[in-house]
Design brief:
heterotrimer; A alpha+beta (about 600); B alpha+beta (about 450); C mainly beta (about 280); B: Dipeptide-binding Protein, domain 1; Dipeptide-binding Protein, domain 3; C: five-stranded antiparallel beta sheet; about 0% helix
Chain lengths: ~600, ~450, ~280
């Protein structure tokens, strides 16, 4: 991974981690805070609701007081005092109840007979179930809960009882409000809260007894366990109910009758939907903010890392170029400051020095090569030129000889001169051949055949009597196949390598030649077990005219390298002193 | 000077509290405004315009109307009526005997009717000793159908106009028994009962139909109440699936559980009479002989042992009749004591299946037979068929036949009478009735004597 | 409903009876005369023991059978003779009046003027409208098919009387059920309260003063009321006298004042002679 990527990854990682941590911390804190506030609000609202309920009870008492003090009630009381027939008063309760907005109102004679009933007018003449008992048993100034019979069902009523003197007897006024949907709707509740009423008038807990203020009452099943618990324990309870559209905290308050029995359960629900929605909103806001922050962080990281690493990359690229041999690389346009700038300047200085040094070295090598060439040329030319000089001296001296001796000397001298000129011609031809290596003419050439043909040429030499044996091993890969090459040049290169290997084993040894095809290249290895090549020699091995032999032009490996280069191949050597050398050549397949 | 003992003064004063006081000097003029939703309103209106030959008085006896005298031959097969002279029709012409005969022929195609100088002779083709009573029925009013123009009668008022919801009558100036006091009568028939009461209290109406449950309230507001005799019957009629022989014990038990006295006395504020029979006593002349009381009603435990669908009944009541609803509610309460559960249904349109209906049936016939025929017509042929294979009594049938028919209808408790109620009206303070009540015991409107104390 | 107003005058000379009711010891008294089922239109006392009754059917003369001094309060009468009214369609609220003085004996009916004779009792009737003797209150007789009179000024009244002494003017009972005092030009000058008819009343108790008897309907029934003229003003002079039934007619015949009532529940008409008791 590049420095830029690593730096980018590092900075991005830090940003992401920071954002996530902050977002989680903030949303968690907010959620907890809201939950605490919601709990406190629920408790306050339940308290407020209790007061409201109690207020309703007081209202019932107040309205019943008004009825008791009204002229109409007094008239009824006066009318029934001593009257045997209550028929004229059978319809009195309904308008009285309507005037005070009561759902229940019974006018009951002293003996408990219903004179008039607003909620069930047809029930006149029957005994009232609780008016007389309630007067004696409870505090008449407050409202209380009581099951009330209606024509179609029994319901719960928040009722009170008053008495009026009726002659020597009493007229009971038993009335109040029915705890039904209308009653629940009359309760003032803040948004998000709702109230349900469970009428505990049946032996079994049943959802059918549940009354809601809204048109669409909730499903009762999730509430039944809570209701049953409150009824059994006669204590308040709280539970969080998970509805499909969100949680709800439900406080269940038991509603007792005069004798302590739980007649109903009031369920006050505080919706958690808003809180959940708020938390969701916070969460998604956090996620959104985090995403934005991370995105910005990524961008900044990218920009920062790019800005920071670009000069480094430039430097790295320049260093790579230098390593590849392109020494004339400049990094003076890094555009940064600080240490990178110092580094860039140092690099620039270094490359400049390297280039100078290389130039000087090249110049020196060139001079050395020219000197070596001149030396080798002088050496190569000196040998053939010496007999020529001797010969010419002989000729001069022969002038003084007889004609016949002169002719003999002249003929020998001429022959020597011709031989010497031939040798000079050969030396000059070699140098000329190296200088004028012809362009390769490509065709499909079988490397194995070239190796076998080249080895065949040297077998006779290797088998000459008196020569130390050299064992030749061929490991030719049949799959090596053909390469696109100039056959003549390849053959020449192979022969030079073989010659070089043979020359490296004057005491005999092993010569191993290997061909192989793999990964798109055809490889040729020529290994000997000679004295090996040292490191310094290896570096100059392919320099023209460089040789460690006493004789030779030093052009053989140079020619091999030139051929390999012209065929877009690669050549290198592996060797250590005393352990032989292996020349590797790769040709593109 | 004659000195009178103070005791006379005291006696006079005492009498004051005991008698109904009429207005002293009736005023002529004005328009009497009546509002009612009674289905028989046209019958009442027609009685003001078209008279019969004879009429029933308060004692049930006949009094002369368009006929001044009548005589029947032996067996009552043929009757001769002497017609009142000088009776003016609404167009001013004098009513002639042939017109009377023609009018009667229109109502009775099977009668042989002839007319003389001032007589009309009727041969009903059967022994009809009660024929004069039949002729007191409004169905036998003398209606003259001219060749062109509106129908004409001889009554104190003529029908001037009949619009949707409004009937206008005008005083017949030449009425043979003196012109009415008021100039006109307007009868509105589409005002709701509640609106009628409001109109009365706002002085927009002079006489409105009320329910027994309204009486007390009207009296408290100082409105006078005019009432007929009990001329309507509240009766339970069981449906076919409950009218079976197997369910007779249920019907009988339910009938026995109903406290009719409380319904009449309390629910209907004493303006009703408990009914064990279809015909009220004042009409049948007989004490109630309630049939089907031989078998004992089911005990509460026996009722509880019945399947739920047999002890739970749906009682259908007209949504527009508050008195019927109040009665039905009380029946439901009584039934509960016997172990039955009755659900009162008052649907405005179609409703769930019901098991029994509470019907309000008028009986406006002048004779027991005609009244029972009215009841049977009001119940409907289907209900009558469930009660028994009984046909309405023939016109003029003797009372025994009528009572026999009634007994047959009640025998299996498919019909359960509850109460008889009168027609009730509340009248405004300016409405006065001279020389008799505005509503006669039969329910007929005595509006020729009505006058308005204020314009 | 009518209120019978009875004007009472203090009896002995030198004793002035104030106009307020509560200060007058007088009281209205009614002497029962006759009762029957058919509507009585008017009665007249024929001295010494005779009674003439005008009703819807006709006119009948009666003779008293018993002496009231024996303790009975209501005399028994024996029918002597009767004559039918002309066969006509009479108004529903039929009013009739017996005219009897030393000179005239007749019957006034709506649109009909009848001359009557005794021995035998006969009526000769002519269809014509003649003024009724409303104590000199000008009128054209009962309006056709109606039960009221109309003055020359167009005022419709059920009855009226002239204020003959201690001032001039009239007292009338209009169709709105009010008694009104009129001046000599028959212009209204005072409202005297409720009243549906008014007739003059001659009583020894009120000798020398204009006295009037009127009837009106109260909330609790018909009552008689007494009025007296004092200083040109008409004031009530006796407590209201509640009637047992409904008043149907007031009349003044031959100097006597009669009240006809109807008991609706009993379907019975009663005739009374009205007078004032001075209470001494």
């Amino acid at each position: 991974m590049s420095l830029r990527n690593r730096l980018f990854a590092l900075v991005s990682g830090v940003v992401v981690l920071t954002v996530v941590l902050v977002t989680w911390t903030v949303s968690s804190s907010a959620r907890q805070s809201f939950a605490t506030v919601d709990t406190q609000r629920s408790a306050a609202l339940v308290t407020q609701f209790r007061r409201e309920f109690a207020n309703q009870g007081e209202q019932v008492s107040l309205r019943l007081d008004r009825i008791a003090q009204s002229d109409a009630a007094s008239r009824v009381a006066a009318g029934i005092a001593g009257a045997r027939d209550f028929a004229p008063y059978v319809n009195e309760a309904t308008p009285l109840a309507a005037a005070q907005e009561l759902d229940v109102l019974d006018l009951v004679a002293a003996d408990g007979t219903i004179v008039s009933s607003a909620e069930w007018p047809a029930r006149f003449g029957y005994q009232h179930a609780w008016a007389r008992k309630a007067v004696h048993a409870t505090n008449p100034s407050s409202g209380f809960l009581q099951p009330v019979e209606f024509p179609d069902e029994t319901g719960l009523g928040l009722v009170a009882v008053r008495t009026l003197p009726a002659g020597s007897g009493t007229l009971y006024l038993a009335g109040g409000r029915r705890l039904d949907r209308k009653f629940l709707q009359s309760l003032v509740l803040p948004p998000g809260m709702r109230v349900l009423l469970y009428e505990n008038l049946q032996p079994e807990v049943s959802g059918r007894q549940l009354i809601a203020a809204e048109d669409d009452p909730p499903e009762a099943a999730p509430l039944e366990p809570l209701i049953a618990r409150v009824i059994q324990d006669r204590r308040e309870a709280r539970e969080v109910i998970e509805w499909p559209d969100g949680p709800e905290t439900v406080d269940a308050l038991p509603l007792g009758g005069p004798d302590g029995a739980v007649l109903g359960v009031l369920l006050v629900g505080s919706s958690g939907r808003e809180l959940a929605a708020l938390v969701r909103r916070i969460r998604w806001s956090g996620v959104g903010f985090g995403a934005v922050a991370i995105g910005v962080g990524f961008l900044l990281s990218f920009l920062v890392s790019a800005r920071v690493t670009r000069p480094v990359e430039q430097l790295a690229g320049a260093a790579r170029a230098v390593a590849d041999g392109e020494w004339d690389v400049h990094v003076d346009d890094v555009g940064t400051t600080g240490e990178i700038k110092v580094l860039a300047d140092a690099f620039e200085t270094m490359t400049r020095q390297l280039v100078d040094h290389r130039d000087r070295l090249v110049q020196a090598e060139r001079v050395a090569a020219w000197r070596e060439l001149a030396r080798r040329l002088a050496h190569e030319l000196k040998n053939p030129l010496f007999p020529l000089r001797i010969t010419l001296d002989n000729l001069r001296r022969a002038k003084s000889l007889s004609s016949a001796e002169f002719d003999e000397v002249f003929d020998e001298s001429l022959t020597t001169l011709q031989t010497g000129l031939g040798n000079l011609n050969t030396v000059i031809g070699r140098f000329s051949d190296f200088a004028r290596m012809p362009a390769p003419e490509f065709s499909q050439v079988s490397i194995n055949e070239v190796v076998e043909q080249s080895v065949a040429l040297f077998r006779a030499q290797l088998a000459a009597p008196g020569r130390p044996p050299v064992a030749v091993t061929l490991e030719l890969d049949p799959a090596a196949g053909a390469i696109r090459a100039d056959g003549e040049q390849i053959r020449r290169a192979v022969q030079n390598l073989l010659l070089n290997a043979i020359d490296a084993m004057p005491e005999g040894g092993e010569l191993r030649i290997v061909t192989a095809r793999s990964n798109g290249v055809v490889r040729l290895d020529v290994a000997d077990t000679g004295q090996g090549i040292g490191e310094e020699e290896r570096s100059r091995l392919f320099t023209p005219y460089y040789t460690t032999k006493q004789h030779g032009t030093g052009l053989g490996l140079a020619i091999v390298q030139s051929v390999v280069t012209d065929h877009h191949g690669k050549i290198w050597v592996e060797s250590e002193h005393g352990r032989g050398a292996t020349f590797h050549i790769e040709f593109p397949a | 000077m004659t000195r009178f003992k103070p005791i006379f003064l005291a006696a006079v004063s005492a009498l004051l509290a005991a008698v109904t006081v009429d207005a002293a000097r009736p005023h002529y003029g004005g328009t009497l405004r009546i509002e009612t939703t009674d289905a028989a309103v046209m019958r009442r209106v027609n009685a003001l315009a078209y008279e019969t030959l004879v009429a029933s008085d308060t004692a049930g006896a006949l009094r002369p109307l368009l006929a001044t005298a009548w005589q029947g031959d032996n067996g009552g097969r043929r009757w001769t009526f002497r017609l009142r002279r000088g009776v003016k029709l609404h167009d001013g012409s004098t009513l002639q005997p042939p017109q009377v005969a023609e009018a009667l022929r229109m109502a009775h195609v099977d009668w042989q009717i002839t007319s003389g100088d001032d007589t009309v002779a009727i041969d009903a083709g059967r022994d009809a000793p009660g024929l004069p009573f039949e002729l007191a029925d409004q169905g036998n009013a003398i209606v003259v159908r001219p060749a062109a123009g509106a129908l004409m009668g001889s009554g104190p008022f003529r029908v001037e106009r009949v619009d949707a919801g409004l009937i206008t009558l005008r005083a017949h100036e030449g009425y043979w028994d003196s012109r009415p006091f008021v100039d006109a009568i307007e009868v509105r028939t589409t005002r709701s009962p509640a609106d009628q009461l409001l109109d009365l209290e706002a002085a927009r109406a002079d006489m409105v139909g009320i329910q027994p449950t309204d009486v007390r309230r009207m009296e408290q507001r100082q409105f006078r109440i005019e009432a007929s005799r009990p001329v309507e019957l509240f009766v339970l009629a069981f449906e076919a699936h409950v009218a079976t022989a197997a369910s007779e014990s249920v019907r009988r038990t339910l009938s026995g559980a109903i406290d009719r006295g409380a319904i009449a006395r309390v629910v209907l504020q004493g303006r009703a009479e408990a009914a064990d029979t279809l015909l009220p006593q004042w009409l049948s002349g007989h004490a109630p002989i309630a049939p089907g009381r031989g078998a004992e009603p089911l005990a509460r435990s026996a009722v509880a042992a019945l399947p739920a669908d047999r002890r739970t009944l749906g009682l259908r009541v007209a949504a527009s009749d508050p008195a019927a609803q109040a009665i039905a509610q009380r029946i439901a309460v009584n039934a509960r004591d016997a172990g039955f559960t009755i659900t009162v249904q008052t649907p405005a349109g179609l409703g769930p299946r019901f098991d029994v209906r509470l019907l309000r049936v008028p009986m406006r016939g002048a004779t027991p037979g005609a009244a029972l025929s009215d009841v049977m017509a009001g119940l409907g042929a289907r209900t009558i068929a469930l009660a028994g294979r009984v046909t309405p009594p023939e016109p003029g049938a003797p009372i025994d036949t009528v009572l026999f028919t009634e007994h047959a209808l009640l025998e299996h408790n498919v019909l359960v009478p509850i109460v008889h109620v009168p027609e009730l009206y509340a009248v405004s303070p300016r409405f006065e009735s001279w020389n008799g009540p505005a509503v006669q015991p039969s329910g007929a409107w005595n509006l020729a004597n009505a006058w308005l104390s204020a314009p | 409903m009518c209120v019978l107003l009875l004007l009472l005058f203090s009896a002995p000379a030198g004793t002035q009876v104030p106009g307020a009711v509560e200060e007058l010891p007088a009281a209205i008294v009614l002497k029962p005369l006759f009762a029957q089922r058919v509507q009585i239109l008017d009665v007249a006392v024929l001295t010494p023991r005779g009674l003439l009754v005008l009703d819807r059917a006709g006119m009948t003369r009666y003779e008293q059978e018993e002496d009231l001094s024996l303790g009975r309060t209501t005399p028994r009468w024996r029918r002597i003779e009767s004559v039918s009214l002309p066969a006509r369609v009479w108004p529903r609220d039929l009013r009739g009046h017996l005219v009897m003085d030393r000179v005239t004996f007749g019957v006034l009916l709506p649109g009909t003027d009848c001359a009557a004779q005794f021995n035998p009792l006969r009526l000769a009737c002519t269809e014509r409208r003649v003024p009724w003797p409303l104590s000199s209150l000008p009128n054209g007789g009962l309006e056709p098919e109606r039960n009221y009179f109309m003055t020359p000024e167009g005022m419709t009244v059920y009855g009226g009387s002239t204020i003959a002494s201690d001032g001039e003017g009239f007292i009338v009972a209009d169709r709105q059920g009010r008694l009104t005092q009129l001046d000599a030009n028959r212009r209204p000058v005072a409202d005297l309260g409720a009243g549906d008819d008014v007739v003059p009343l001659r009583s020894l108790c009120g000798a020398g003063r204009s006295q009037y008897l009127a009837a009106s309907h109260g909330r609790d029934g018909d009552v008689l009321r007494a009025l007296v003229v004092q200083g040109g003003r008409v004031v009530q002079a006796a407590p209201d006298f509640p009637l047992a039934g409904a008043f149907t007619a007031l009349s003044s015949v031959d100097g006597k004042t009669f009240v006809i009532t109807r008991l609706s529940g009993a379907d019975r008409y009663d005739a009374f002679q009205a007078d004032i008791s001075c209470g001494r």
